[in-house]
Design brief:
The complex is a heterodimer.
Chain A (H helix, E strand, L loop, with lengths): L1 H36 L3 H4 L14 H9 L2 H32 L5 H12 L3 H14 L6 H25 L3 H9 L4 H12 L1 H17 L2 H6 L8 H7 L8 H29 L8
Helix pairs in contact in A: 1-13, 3-13, 4-7, 4-10, 4-12, 5-7, 7-10, 8-9, 10-13
Chain B lengths: L10 H37 L15 H8 L1 H32 L6 H8 L7 H11 L6 H8 L16 H26 L3 H9 L4 H30 L2 H7 L10 H11 L3 H10 L1 H21 L1
Helix pairs in contact in B: 1-12, 3-7, 3-9, 5-10, 7-9, 7-10, 8-9, 9-13, 11-12
The chains are: A mainly alpha, B mainly alpha.
Chain lengths: ~280, ~300
Amino acid sequence: MKSCNWRLTLVKILFYLIVLILIIISLLPFYWMAITSFRSTSEIYSQDFSLWPKNFILTNYIKLIKETNFLIWFKNSWLIALLTTLLSLFVGCLAAFSLTRVKYPGKILISQFILGTYLIPRSLLFIPLYNMLKEIGVLGTHLGLVFAYSTFAVPFCTWLLVSYFKTIPHELDEAAIIDGCSPLGVLGRIILPLSLPGIVTAGIFTFNLANNEYLYAFTFISNESLSTLPRGLSSMIMGDVYLWGKLMAACLLSSVPLLILYMFVQKFMVSGLTAGSVKG
Amino acid sequence: MSFFRNSTISKQYKISELKLGYSTILPVLLILSGLILIPVVWAIFLSFTNKIVGVSPKFIGIENYKYLLSDSLFRRCVLNTLVYTIFCVFFKTILGVLVAVVLNQDFKFRNLTRALLLLPWIVPTLVTALTWRWMFDDMAGLINFLLKSCGLIDRDMAWLASPKLAMLSVMIVNIWRGTPFVAITVLASLQTFPKSLTEAAVIDGANSLQNFFYIVIPSVYRTIFAACLFTTIWTFNDFELVFLLTRGGPMNITKLLSILSFEISFGAQKIGLGTSVFLIISPILLILIIPVVRATLNEERSE
């Protein structure tokens, strides 16, 4: 009995050790980002290395706000991501309703098409997309980026919504139909309210995807004041000069709001993110 | 199930069901056809031309493809991309399953741990790339400091600039960033796994390792496979992370196909040739994409 207890304790210690190592690995870069952002340039490059800053300073943050267009980039990024998300949610909800609730020929082909488009590499798409946006005169504008981001946001969002809508029991819509509700009324009054957590989660993931995008922003936007955060941040690197303090401050400031959003949905995430799409 | 129960009886109902179905799917189809289908067709056309920015395209048949096949840089990039994809996917899958199994246990702070372990996947790629670039810095980087203080290396290493280490370094960053995706996907499926099954096996005398390999893994195998395929496609298409870490250098060691395509079409402005880079390997992509689409949709139907 005693030896069994002893073994159990050992297993427990080993388990917590693994957990600790995993946490350290995933948080170390964030820790280093934060620490660097509060250090002065001379301390960053000083010879006596330490894991803790000698004195916390905010110079990097002040410089970032004053010397760069950080706040404008931030606003641009969030605006574009928000528009992309709203568009994706709107068409995504309609499509998910269509794919999960209505019967018509060609549905399987359409599902395959939507999923397939999500997997097309952006590196292939960006050249013809560039030409097309130029033709219709929205290249280099925020609207152009919203169009470009829809290429991955719409299929992704639709896909998540399809998996949520499936979890809403069909008996409910049948009951509503019998009570005289129209099919679109079922969408508006039954499915949408019931899948609200799912819609919020899908929305936040789509938002995150659009907010993180770099390739399209980098190639399609030429005006610096229209730049998004990732593009703006990369423009802060001048040749070989890396002002790490300022850069890390920018990284931290652009990540924190996303992390807060993410904390808000992470409890739905495990049950929801991949439900249906890759469920075993 | 159908909204129109009597659809077999009344033609009227059938028509209105068709109308409803097509009209609700139409917006997505319009957006995707306009923004993806047309550009892809246009890309295929361009790949048969010698289109350069500002010059009207001239049809040159399969010259671009022939050129690429004989180009040693192209072959180098194919090799790099394959090595990068295979290594990263392998480790992301193994580590992802490990993390999922850990997170599936009952322990204190489990929810907090789950939230923390998934963080690398949330922050923008650019932030990941910049932070790791700084950690890999050869003058004042954290990695060199930690390894030196553990006594594992005795002098500073140029992680991203040395031809021997650059590929390893970018792969580490990709694995760090991509593991959480596999982990949450597998975790979701582990959580639907009935505990009674493993309990029954324990009663029958199975130990926890046997339990894991003979009962848990086979039942979530399909999920692992699906997550693995998705990850493979993303890793294969990866551009941003490596581009921001090394720009494909040193000496093309980390140059992926996506970076090559970008350099040719955006840097050198040879659009025709640039689009061919991805189209020439599209058979490989299709081999990956078709089973993902099939498996995902089959599962839906069997549900």
